[in-house]
Structure formats: structure tokens, C-alpha cells
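Appendix B, record 7
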Amino acid sequence: MGIFSRTRDIIAANVTDLLDKAEDPAKMIRMIILEMEETLVEVRSAAARSIADQKEMRRTIAKLDTVQANWTEKATLALSKDREDLAKAALVEKQKAADMVERLEAEIKQLDEALAANDADIAKLQSKLREARARQNSIVTRLESANHRAKMRAMYAGPKIDEAFSRFDLLERRVDLAEGRADAMGMGAAPKTLEEEFADMQAAEKVEAELAALKAAATKKD
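C-alpha cells (predicted):
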């Protein structure tokens, strides 16, 4: 037994209610769609058989119409020969063919009604199937989104993030040590001697004097 007991249950079914009660909506929607597709195939197959039966019945009716015409001719011939007994027998056979035609026409009418119902059922089944497929796309999208969010949250709150930041702390500590070593290399440098300070001063004076001479030369040219 499937989810539905075939056509009428599917037409009356509320897909949303079924999914709300399902523990696994994605699995349920796949089952619903499969059931609908199978039922649609069955209804169409039944309709095809009914159409084929009607065509066969109409061919039989056409043959029986010919039979009736033949018996009418025979009855007429018998009467022309004063054989009323044969004429009656021919008319009895004609009536049998007529009765058969009447029964077949009644069956064709019943099949017409069944086909009209099948046509309506197929339209409703297709509408339900479109609804189910639309729900399937929505459910798949929502599940993928939910799984993605869950992974992201697990990543944010998980041990990998903590481990990454621990590595950042370690790297920052190594940078601090490198900077400390560089600063330490400048520590304890000996101060300049008095002679070194005067030598620097004299060198600076020479540079200033040379600069002043260049400026004066440039002024004379102007």
C-alpha cells in the first residue's frame, strides 16, 4: 500500500499537510511524486484501453449495420416469393443484430462517460504533480540552505577556528620576539667621545661654508 489509495486520494490530498507530518520531508516528497507519476500512467493506460474498446465496438456496429441491411433484403426477397416464414426468420436475425448494436452503443456511452471522468482526473493529477514538484524544489533548496548554515555555524564555533586563532597568537609572539631582538641590538651602544663630537661639528661647519659659497656665486651670476 502506497501513500495514496490511487486517484481520488491523490486529488483530495493536501501535500502540505503530508509534508508537515513527515519526519523526512525530502524523502516523503519523492515518494509522493513517484506515487502520482505511477497513478498518472495507470489512468492514462486505462483511458487508452477504453478508447481502443470504443473503436472496436464502432467497427462491430458498422458490420452489424451491414448485417441488418442484408437481412432486410432477404426478408423482402422472401416476401416477394410468398415465403412469409423465411421473411420472419430473416427479421428475427435482423433484430438480433439490432439488439447487439443497441448494447454496444450503450457500452460506448458508458465509456464516453468514463473517458470524460478520466480526462478530468488526469488534469487534476497533473495539477497535483506540478504542485508536488514545486514543493520538491523548494524543500531541496531549503534543506541545502539549512545544511550550509549548519556547516558555517559549526565552522565558526568549532575547534578549527580556535586552532586558527591560536596559530595567529603564536605568529604574533614570534614577531614580538623578532622586534625585541632588533631593539636589543641597539642597546648599550657607547656614547660619542668629545673628540668625535668636535669632529662632527667641524665637518658640519665645512659643509655650511661650502653651501654659502655656492649660494654667493649663484647670486653674482644673476
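Remarks on this record: The chain is about 90% helix and 0% strand. Helices lie at 7-12, 15-21, 25-80, 84-157, 159-185, 194-221.
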